[in-house]
Amino acid sequence: MRDNLVSAESLLAWYDVHGRELPWRVKGGPDTQRHADPYRVWLSEVMLQQTTVAAVKSYFARFTALWPTVQDLAAAEDADVMREWAGLGYYARARNLLACARAVVARGGFPSDLDGLRALPGVGPYTAAAVASIAFGRSEVVVDGNVERVMARVFAIETPLPAAKPALVAAAGRLTPVLRPGDYAQAVMDLGATICTPRSPACGICPWMAGCAGREIAATLPRKLAKAPKPTREGVVWVLWNGDAVLLERRPDRGLLGGTLGFPGAGWDGSEVRPPAEGPWEEAGVVTHTFTHFHLNLRVLVGHGAGATRGEFHGQNAFSPQDLPTLMRKAHDAALRHKET
Question: Which end of the chain, N or C, is less packed with Cβ atoms under 10 Å?
Answer without folding.
Answer: C
